[in-house]
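Retro notes (design track)

What went well: tokenization of the new backbones is finally stable.
What didn't: we kept losing track of which sequence belonged to which structure.
Fix going forward: every design gets posted as structure first, then sequence, in one message. First example under the new rule, 263 residues:
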């Protein structure tokens, strides 16, 4: 990965979108069937491995072998229909990576983002902690979307807070495909149950819905992640963010040094 260099990825229409996977998971739950991991269901047709063929047939074989459950024809049809309407389009995506969060709000579909508003100090914190941005372009000069990326270790990345015309699930899928091409290893992605920053998901580094983990195929992805970034508190009087070492705790909440002196 080189910062500032534009990359291109062409999607494979054999894949099922994260929205489709969520729909299938919800349907399986409504039928009282066991939970199945995303990476087993992400392809419409699988040509390798123990379970091959179209998704309804693979699930039917899995449920019969592992749980002694036989899917009904109606269940197979519903699963197939849910998958078909959420097939990934054959589309090209242009994107780059940067560790400098200095573009104007709205340049990448992120007008209204709190990271350029009340939580703008979060950009400095994230840059200091090694967070990078993945930015998407509709043309060479026109941005369409962005999201934040943080590398947990050699086998896992966290992606969160997508803005613009692409969801976190779509960007995670594209990033997983890029990593597969870049590293010659197979990467997959799935949703996290929760993502927090020093125990908080509504603090200075605010976490939006559906954070994702992108992981190497031979590893087990985490379900929950807490990013150990510096802790900041919002002044109860003036609304400014301050490092925990600079905050004074009062009976009415955290107060910055300036407001503390004015009391």
């Amino acid at each position: 990965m080189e910062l500032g260099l534009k990359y291109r990825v062409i999607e494979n229409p054999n894949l099922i979108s994260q929205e489709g996977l969520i729909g299938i998971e919800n349907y399986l739950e409504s039928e009282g069937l066991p939970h199945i991991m995303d990476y087993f269901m992400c392809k419409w047709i699988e040509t390798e491995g123990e379970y091959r063929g179209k998704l309804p047939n693979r699930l039917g074989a899995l449920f019969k072998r592992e749980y002694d459950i036989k899917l009904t024809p109606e269940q197979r049809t519903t699963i197939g229909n849910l998958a078909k309407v959420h097939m990934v389009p054959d589309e090209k995506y242009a994107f780059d990576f940067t560790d400098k969060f200095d573009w104007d709000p709205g340049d990448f579909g992120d007008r209204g983002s709190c990271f350029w508003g009340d939580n703008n100090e979060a950009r400095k914190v994230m840059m200091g902690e090694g967070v990078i941005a993945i930015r998407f372009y509709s043309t060479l000069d026109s941005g369409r979307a962005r999201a934040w990326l943080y590398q947990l270790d050699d086998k896992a990345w966290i992606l969160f807070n997508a803005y613009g015309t692409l969801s976190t699930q779509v960007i995670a899928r594209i990033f997983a495909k890029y990593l597969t091409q870049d590293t010659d290893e197979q990467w997959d992605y799935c949703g996290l149950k929760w993502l927090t920053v020093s125990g908080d998901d509504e603090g200075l580094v605010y976490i939006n819905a559906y954070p994702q983990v992108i992981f190497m195929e031979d590893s087990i992805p985490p379900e929950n992640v807490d990013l150990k970034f510096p802790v900041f508190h919002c002044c109860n009087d003036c609304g400014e963010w301050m490092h925990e070492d600079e905050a004074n705790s009062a009976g009415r909440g955290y107060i910055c040094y300036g407001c503390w002196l004015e009391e």
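Added context from the reviewer: The chain has seven helices and 15 strands.
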